[in-house]
Amino acid sequence: METPVVTWRMGPALRIFVALVMLFFLLMGLGGAADLIESRSAAFFLPLLWSLGIDVYFWWLFFRPLIRLTPTELVLRNKYRTERVDLRTVQAVVPSSAGLVIMVDGRAAHTGWAVQKSTLAFLLHREGRADRIAEQIQQAARGVGAPAPPVLE
User: Which uninterrupted H or E stretch holds 64?
Assistant: First the structure.
């Protein structure tokens, strides 16, 4: 059975919160620009540019990252780069507060930011969204013949 293409992004609650923060900065920039237009300042566009810059940065941090599972590879799109990992080389997927850590050749070779385990879930030893996604990726990797995870002594 072939694995369907599945894409994960940051959780919906975080994305809604960040969208509200972005809206706040945009409104602040518009308010600052309106004040400067009213005082007939030539630099009325500066607050707007400042707020748009912050919004672009927040989008880059919180809306761009994704993890995509395809039938043959795992695509990790983080803030600065996109990595492609062949599913046959994935030994283990470990959820952490930094993201999903992909183990290749017995070492932590890649990290996907888009899915992170909350500190509360980690401290309470609870299974969360990151654990379920990590297990789904591991099952897909085993389905295409990935090696068993390394045994820790």
Answer: none
Return the H-helix or E-strand segment holding 2.
none
Query: Is 89 strand, coil or helix?
Result: helix
Considering the domain delimited by 66-143, tell me its CATH architecture: Roll (2.30)
pLDDT digits (tens, 9 = 90+) for 55-81: 999 999 899 999 999 999 999 999 889
Look at 111 and 152; give whichever has higher pLDDT.
111
- Any idea where the domains of the chain sit in the sequence? 10-62, 66-143
- Tell me the residue type at 18: V
pLDDT for the residue numbered 121? 79
Q: Can you list the alpha helix ranges (DSSP code H) found in the chain?
A: 12-38, 45-62, 119-123, 129-143
Distance CA 137, CA 142 (A): 9
Q: Which helix (H) or strand (E) holds 68?
A: strand 66-69
AA letter at 93: V
